[in-house]
Amino acid sequence: RCGSSNSGSRLGAINNLTVSSSPRSGAPVARNSVHFRAIRPACYSSFPRMASTRIELPFKRIRKINIRFRIPYYTQWGENLAVCGSDPGVGCWDPNKALRMVAYHEGDILFWHATLTVADDFSCDYNYCLVDDQRNIIKWESGQRRSFTLLQGLPDGASVDVYDLWRDGSAPESLLSKSAFRNAIFCQDENEENLEDFKATIHQDHFPADTFNMQDSVLVRFRVSCPKMESGKIAYLTGSASALGNWNSKEAVKLYYGEDSYWQTDCTIRKDEFPIRYPFISSNSFFPGLRMDKSSKIIPEIGSDRVLNWDSITRRPATMIFVSDGSFRETPWRGAGVAIPVFSLRSNDDIGVGEFLDLKLLVDLSVKSGFHLIQLLPVNDTSVHGMWWDSYPYSSLSVFALHPLYLRVQALSQKIPEEIKQEIEKAREFLNLKDVDYDGTMAAKLAIAKKIFYLEKDEVLSSDAFQKFFQENEAWLKPYAAFCFLRDFFETSDHSQWGRFSEFSKAKLEKLVSKESEHHNTVAFHFYLQFHLHLQLSEAAEYARRKKVILKGDLPIGVDRHSVDTWVYPSLFRMNTSTGAPPDYFDKNGQNWGFPTYNWEEMSKDNYTWWQSRLTQMGKYFTAYRIDHILGFFRIWELPEHAVTGLVGKFRPSIPLSQEELEKDGIWDFYRLSQPYIVDHILQ
């Protein structure tokens, strides 16, 4: 800006400005700098000459890269594949804007391909989806989102091929990607020294442009899922190319463990060696190449060799190929487990019943026996009636709270007085019977726990561990503790008989559980119990995971009519109905379980938040669930509230099949569907 102090507010402007990417001769300047030079207008000739100015600006030339997606997939007429992902080029997860693919044949295999031109810093998540001609979703591939990042340093105009395989959720190997297998049975030991030495540099993101001969070679990134790869084993790659050892096992290429069971490595393959044949191999060798000695356990893939070709006839052959080779092919995994209720366990530390910490002993037994799974009955609190009826584990007082029956009182404190220790010993001697004395065990444990609580309540309730637990669980913990107090105060769990507390109120709840409440100690005792139950079950669950054993929980189909959940969320349940089963071969009168049915329409309004919270709570302890009466989630046998047996029920929802639906599936002979088909060879 130029001007004169005598010109007032009027400012002159430079009417010529040149920008040059190269400086004056002899002046050193960094690459990509911009050189500015101001030209003085004649009217300002009296001003001093302005020096040429060089300003260093960050400048990067953006290269364009062509990504070519390719995947084999057989479709029906009118079906198409598309690439849908997080980048605008692949639709930002909108199938209507997804990258449409084109089909072509290679022999008997139908391939789909699509090309996307991107900047050289491209990165996105994506999946493949099957759509119809109007781009309506037919289905998505299963599994987690795929992730793709271009290597930096690829030359401008380079082509990168991405070879994927469709992930089918019904394939047996997809089951092995679930958390029960991934985080328990086949969990990689992150602390194993040898594995750490060879763990992946999977975020290697630079293309070796200085050392790579693009005229003669192609860079290939091999990637394979090895969900059954146990700790202490490494994946290798061998094959017909020189970079793969030319079938020499001593020259096999080591793959590196990345994440989510994937192993990968980069290899430079000469173009004249394509097509290449190769298998993957697993071994317990941590040395370069495969060590062939008595200690080596080498497991090659089953089936024929994999084949990779390089398309040399395209206008721009690939500089790099990303190959996602699906899963390591090996014999199907087989495992065994044990199903047992917690209350049936026995140890020297029990009081009358099996306890959560006894699960650690069962885990040890399972490891020695070759079992990989422990399945339990439901462990939620069922204390509805205050008597032995509550021993039925499927009638939950709360779907979040754990049952005090499974508490180990000796583990509540490190400073238990001697007289309480003697009381514990007497209870053990009296209650450790062949059969469980439910009433006596509950009474003894609650009495002992309450004495310990009053000795250390201030210390425990103010501890960081308890405060963390309370903050994470207060949404259900406060109503549960208040319910237990009101149940004992009114001597019934039927909350319709609680007077002004019959209808749940957040304001009344907060007043009841506050520290200023005269009943705070009684309410806080239930906080205390749940805190220690959480610690003890968490300890057992973590122990099982470390020992690579699945701890499988049980998800009951219903909740008790007089429960915390029906008190707090009455609109989520059809309280004038009951759940059961229709008459069948086993019971001609059917069954009436007494649980109210779910109001699915109401639950859907907040995206099933209650169910999400329930499953999340179970997930803190269990790596697998058994879903009780799975049919009931789709169609339940619903009875009126006054019903005694299951005879007067009906299915809800009751959705018949229309004639058009049956005919669409080729079913037209309705007489055949409604008449028995019995022939002689069946009777014989």
From TrEMBL:
<feature type="domain" description="CBM20">
    <location>
        <begin position="212"/>
        <end position="312"/>
    </location>
</feature>
<dbReference type="GO" id="GO:2001070">
    <property type="term" value="F:starch binding"/>
</dbReference>
<dbReference type="GO" id="GO:0005975">
    <property type="term" value="P:carbohydrate metabolic process"/>
</dbReference>
<dbReference type="InterPro" id="IPR003385">
    <property type="entry name" value="Glyco_hydro_77"/>
</dbReference>
<dbReference type="InterPro" id="IPR013783">
    <property type="entry name" value="Ig-like_fold"/>
</dbReference>
<protein>
    <recommendedName>
        <fullName>4-alpha-glucanotransferase</fullName>
        <ecNumber>2.4.1.25</ecNumber>
    </recommendedName>
</protein>
<dbReference type="Pfam" id="PF00686">
    <property type="entry name" value="CBM_20"/>
</dbReference>
<keyword id="KW-0963">Cytoplasm</keyword>
<dbReference type="InterPro" id="IPR013784">
    <property type="entry name" value="Carb-bd-like_fold"/>
</dbReference>
<keyword id="KW-0119">Carbohydrate metabolism</keyword>
<dbReference type="GO" id="GO:0005737">
    <property type="term" value="C:cytoplasm"/>
</dbReference>
<dbReference type="Pfam" id="PF02446">
    <property type="entry name" value="Glyco_hydro_77"/>
</dbReference>
<dbReference type="InterPro" id="IPR017853">
    <property type="entry name" value="GH"/>
</dbReference>
<dbReference type="GO" id="GO:0004134">
    <property type="term" value="F:4-alpha-glucanotransferase activity"/>
</dbReference>
<feature type="domain" description="CBM20">
    <location>
        <begin position="59"/>
        <end position="168"/>
    </location>
</feature>
<keyword id="KW-0808">Transferase</keyword>
<keyword id="KW-0328">Glycosyltransferase</keyword>
<dbReference type="InterPro" id="IPR002044">
    <property type="entry name" value="CBM20"/>
</dbReference>
<comment type="similarity">
    <text>Belongs to the disproportionating enzyme family.</text>
</comment>
